[in-house]
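Need tokens for this chain, all 361 residues.
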Amino acid sequence: MKKSITFLTLADFHYYKPAWPANIAQLESILQRAADAKVDFVMHCGDFCADYADSPECTKAWVDNKHGLPVYGVYGNHELEGMNHGRKDLDFEHPMKYVTPYLTNRADEVVWGTPDGKPAEWGEISYFWFEKNGFRIICTDGFYSRNPETGEWVHNQTLYVPKGNYPHEALGADQRAWLEAVLTDAAHKDIPCIVISHCPFIEWRGRAGDHAEVREIFNRVNAIRKGTVVASICGHLHTDRAEVQDGIVYLAINSVINGHWQGALDEHYLPEHTFTYQDYDAEGTYRGEYEKPLDSFWQGRHGWFHKDPLSAIITVSDDGTVEVEGQESEWVYGVAPTAESIGDTIGVKNGITSGTYKADR
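Here are the structure tokens for all 361 residues:
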């Protein structure tokens, strides 16, 4: 009998009250879509929140969602950004303890990348796998960097990479060995696998520093049993891409609302271009909402935003079929990035393309 699994994915929500025009109403609408579709779980592909310690309203809406949905996620490069902003009251020795517990509300049901598969004391190991409907879903952490002098791989402790380390965003040797062991086990048991990451493992911009080594692992495992790795799904690109390579479906999920970002200051929003800002106290209690000019956010002058929050519903079948039910939107207030602002960015758009793709299995 044909098996399948259906889940909703979102990427690059970038919840951070001073910086980005993202609010809990957007997240709630995505979770409502997931509930209406009766998905098996919800997955975020990183850059979900940039300041977990000061955003209890976001973490509560996610892990304690009113629909009782199982949720999972992976680290993005902005997940530890909150550690960059002078928080002297936080324990900087173990910054991951402020993020890892909120990756999933099923922490006791997943197998972590620790020797015993149990959660690490400080959340310092954040990669894991779980199984549903006969599929194995593997959640990676692509934010290790290598010290060229010692050869040691370390997890980045903030948004910034330790000086001199390279590559900046990678799985690292230990996690790659773990990934290959998890996939090889699945191959011998004929369990189809879906791999989740923030950075892509394919030759797209923003790819992981050890993307080639990861693809070699995929190919070795698929040589053991054809189609063990069915799909590799990422975020990070703030755009929508799909490609089948070496019999594997690679998908990039567009950002929730941050359609395009440019480092240079570009004041393209007018004072009347506002966003509904939802205010919460330090405990995450709602205090009301008001209209706030888009260019008053730290990144409001750098970004162009989707009018509607984007997500995708993905169904994967054990014959290798991957179906994507996307969404379309438009630029908020009709203000679109110019050709000059886009530059050589590939695929800036307001949507996630619906389509059907086929892995070799």
